[in-house]
Amino acid sequence: LLAGRALTKFLHPFTCEELDQDFSFQKALTYGMLPEVWDGDDANNYLKSYVTTYLKEEVQQEGLTRNLGNFSRFLEVASLSQASLLNVSNIAREVGVDNKTAENYFTILEDLLLAVRLPIFSKHAKREMYQRSKFLFFDVGVYRTIRPKGPLDTAELIDGAALETLLFQQIRALNEYYDFGYNLYHWKTRSQEEVDFVLYGEKGLIAIEVNRTASPRKKELKGLREFLSDYPIAKAILLYGGNKRQYIDNIELIPFEEGLFSLKNLLEETTKN
Q1: Reported pTM
Q2: Rounded Cα–Cα distance for residues 184 and 74 (Å)
Q3: In this structure, which of 21, 99, 186, 205 has its CB flanked by the most CB atoms within 10 Å?
Q4: So what's the pLDDT on residue 194?
Q5: 66-to-60, 90, 146 alpha-carbon distances in Å
Q6: What does the buried/exposed string (b/e) look like for 214-231 if buried means 16 or more CB atoms within 10 Å of the residue's CB?
Q7: Who contacts 23 (Cβ-Cβ below 8 Å, separation ≥6)?
Q8: Is 249 in a helix, a strand, or coil?
């Protein structure tokens, strides 16, 4: 009966724009953008409680799975695929469940708005593409809290996925809040060229890559270069660890933090002619 009056809106974690001068890049990369992280006094314990609450109250009490132990193990294993291509069969084997159960677990994460699977961008593809989705927990802090850590887990590996996640959650929030209408994808060819995020919609086509290096070399630009070769109308952007905004081979290089704050303008501009 409410269908004619109902509007669906999503509240995301904070954006850089909302935090404005209170934003700290290092804090965001370490603890994520959930409001309590920025308003409270103990981000670590809050994030641990947040994950536990979802496990116990949402998953267990709602009867979404019969085996909470397997689901807890699944969360840890899934976190190792953060910002990477998803292989459900490998994760099922690692957790000790069948593929159908693992797929159901991923569906639970999506239904609870805890994670997203980004499909491959293959419109008018000129190359052989991977068909697997990319997996991302919705927030940096949640990802870091779930992910197992030990002497074999390098900070570089964890931080790389966190950096990509921070950008992803900003893109999602701004895309919905300002109704830009983009669909989000990733792009990866069988010959290993890839772009972290592809945005496609009526406003245009945008390819965005993330790299922490301060001085990008040719290999850091290869994915975007190859994407432009296939889709010359696209706008190509590299958010990187340098401090200078510049253009190289029709690719706009923007310092990462500056890119986060200028993301709204980047998304609302139309694709180049």
Answers
A1: 0.93
A2: 25
A3: 186
A4: 96
A5: 8, 21, 20
A6: eebeeebbebbebbbeeb
A7: 16
A8: coil
Q: Which residues touch 270 (CB under 8 Å, ≥6 apart)?
A: 203, 204
CA nearest to 206, candidates 137, 264, 166, 255: 264
Q: Which two tokens stand for residue 26?
A: 């290092």
Helix (H) or strand (E) holding 103: helix 99-111
Q: Take residue 214 and report the two structure tokens written for it.
A: 């301060």
Q: Kindly state the tokens that stand for 97.
A: 């469940």
Measuring CA to CA, which residue among 136, 125, 126, 74 is closest to residue 104? 74
Mean pLDDT rounded to a whole number for the chain: 92
CA angle centred on 253, ends 252 and 255, rounded to 5°: 140
Could you tell me which residues come within 8 angstroms of residue 228 by beta carbon, excluding any fewer than 6 positions away?
Answer: 207, 234, 236, 249, 250, 251
- Residue at 83: amino acid letter: A
Tens digit of pLDDT for each residue in 138-159?
Answer: 999 999 999 999 888 888 889 9
Do the beta carbons of residue 43 and residue 31 sit within 8 Å? yes
